[in-house]
Amino acid sequence: MLTCDFTSFSKPHRVWEGSGNVAALDLLRATLREPQTLEAFFDEVDLSQGADKRLDAAIKDAKESFADTATIEYRARRVAEGLALVLQASLLVRHGHPAVADAFCATRLAGDWGGAFGTLPPGLDVAPIIDRATPKVG
């Protein structure tokens, strides 16, 4: 008779398994082990301060996300996501097309988007975005 050992499937910290969680926890461990990495990250994104108020608020939130160390492992994925979004927005604001940067900040940082792909808030200058995405024939 075949039996299954259910204890091998019910590990106490099962929520932390998976590549996304491992990467997020590795990010936290690296910043704790070498704090200058986090300092260098924020030096980089701070170069965009003042260019977009939504980005400024997101940078402030990202910095504050490291203040509560008691729950930081639980929030590891959210912290990692916040850092990724802040870096992307910072690069777009400084080096990207203004319409693309505005749409990114509105949807990813200010949360003005829906669950369906391509849901954008009104008032964005989408013509340059569409033009950039339209294949040029000829």
Keywords:
mainly alpha, 56% helix
Walk me through this protein's architecture.
This protein is 56% helix and 0% strand. It is an all-alpha fold and 138 residues long. The radius of gyration is 20 Å and the shape is elongated. Mean pLDDT is 87; it is low at 1-13.
Label the overall shape.
Answer: elongated
User: Helical proportion?
Assistant: 55-70%
Low-confidence runs of at least 5 consecutive residues: 1-13
- Indicate the radius of gyration in whole angstroms: 20 Å
User: What is the terminal separation in angstroms?
Assistant: 69 Å
Instruction: Give the oligomeric state of the chains in this entry, treating copies of one chain as homo and distinct chains as hetero.
Output: single chain
Order of helices and strands: HHHHHH
DSSP summary, beta strand count: 0
The average pLDDT score comes to 87
Largest sheet: none
Q: Helical region count?
A: 6
Beta-strand level of the residues, as a percent range? under 5%
Q: Helix/strand/pairing class, anyone?
A: mainly alpha
Topology, element by element:
Blueprint: H1 19-33, H2 35-45, H3 53-64, H4 76-95, H5 98-109, H6 127-133
Helix pairs in contact: 1-2, 1-4, 3-4, 4-5
Outline of the structure:
By secondary structure, the chain is mainly alpha-helical.
